[in-house]
Amino acid sequence: MATMNRFALRAAFFVGFCLQLGTSANAQSIGDNMISYLNGTLATRVGGGECDQMATEALRVAGGEFVPSDLGDDFPSTGDKVWGTLVTVISNQNNTWSDSNPGNTCLPGDVIQFGSAVLGTTSYPQQFTCVVAAVDTSGRPTSIYQQNFNNNRVVQQATFDATQLNNGWLRIYRPIERIDRFNEWKFTIVNNDTRQHTYYLMYGEDTITVVTVTAANTAGSFYIHSVDTDGTVPNFLLYNETSYFVQVAKGNEIYQSPNGLAILQLSQ
C-alpha cells in the first residue's frame, strides 16, 4: 500500500486547517438551503437511494448537522432516527389522532421520521424519512420530498396531509446547525460504480478503518464518517492506491472515470 510523503502531509494539514476555520450556515437558513438542494435533485438518486440518505445529504449540503452521533440516539426504538430539535409528534393510536404541540409551527426543511405510519390508504415502511417541502397556514406539512418510496429510488415531491394519519406516528424535527470542531472531520462517501469496492480511511500512515461499500444504488453504498485526528488531514485510499484528502462536510463519490476507478469530491 502506498504512503504519502511528509511534504504532502504538511501541505494537507495547512489546507485542512484553513478549511476548518469556516463556519456552517446560519441555523435559520438551513431549511431554505435544503429546499434548494432537493429541488435540484428531483428525479435523481441521492446517496445510495435510501430515504434517510436523502435527508442526510440535504442536511450536509445545507450546513445542518448530519452525523448521527451528533444528532442523538435513535428514539423511541433502534432505527427511529433523530434529526434535530423535536417540533411535534403527530400520532394515531387506538383510533385517536393527536398533535403533541399544535402551536409549534413546522417549516420547509424540517425532517419527518415515520413510525409504522398509514396516511389514508397509503402505508409507509415501518421506518421512513422525508423532508417537508411546504406547509399550510397552520404550519403543518402539505408537501414532502421523499426517496425510495414504492421502490422509486430517486427524489420525488408528493402531497402530504398529516390529518389523514390513521395509524402510527410522525416525529417532526427542526434541523440544527452543524458544529465544526477543530481536528474533527465529518463527511460522506458514496459508491456510484456498478461493483463493490473497499477503501481505507487513513491519516498519515495509520489506518483508521477499512470499509467495503456495495454497488451503486444500494443501502450499503453510502457511508457517513466522523473522524478525530491529531491535526493530520484524513484521506481515502482505494485498494488500487487512488488517494484523496477529505474536507469537512463534503461529499465524496467513487466512480468509474475514463482512466479507471477514481474518487471525486462532490460540488456541494
Instruction: Bin the strand percentage.
Output: 35-45%
Query: What string, H for helix and E for strand, traces the elements in order?
Result: HHHHEEEEEEEEEEEEEEEE
Sheet with the most strands, sense and barrel status? 8 strands, antiparallel
The counted number of beta strands is 16
**How would you classify the helix and strand content by structural class?**
alpha+beta
Form type: elongated
Terminal Cα separation, in Å?
30 Å
Rg for CA atoms: 20 Å
Which bin fits the share of residues in helices? Answer: 10-25%
As residue ranges, the low-confidence spans are 1-24
Number of helices: 4
Q: How many discrete structural domains?
A: 2
Q: Kindly state the mean pLDDT as a whole number?
A: 89
Please describe the topology of this protein.
Blueprint: H1 6-20, H2 27-41, H3 51-62, H4 68-71, E1 85-93, E2 96-99, E3 111-119, E4 122-123, E5 127-135, E6 141-146, E7 156-159, E8 165-174, E9 184-191, E10 197-203, E11 206-213, E12 222-228, E13 235-238, E14 243-245, E15 250-257, E16 260-265
Parallel strand pairs: 9-15
Antiparallel strand pairs: 1-2, 1-8, 3-4, 3-5, 3-8, 5-6, 6-7, 9-12, 10-11, 10-13, 13-14, 15-16
Architecture overview:
With 268 residues, the chain is α+β, with helices and mostly antiparallel strands. It folds into two domains: 6-22 and 180-265, Immunoglobulin-like (Sandwich), CATH 2.60.40; 27-174. It has four helices and 16 strands. The chain has helices spanning 6-20, 27-41, 51-62, 68-71; strands spanning 85-93, 96-99, 111-119, 122-123, 127-135, 141-146, 156-159, 165-174, 184-191, 197-203, 206-213, 222-228, 235-238, 243-245, 250-257, 260-265. Helix 2 (27-41) packs across helix 3.
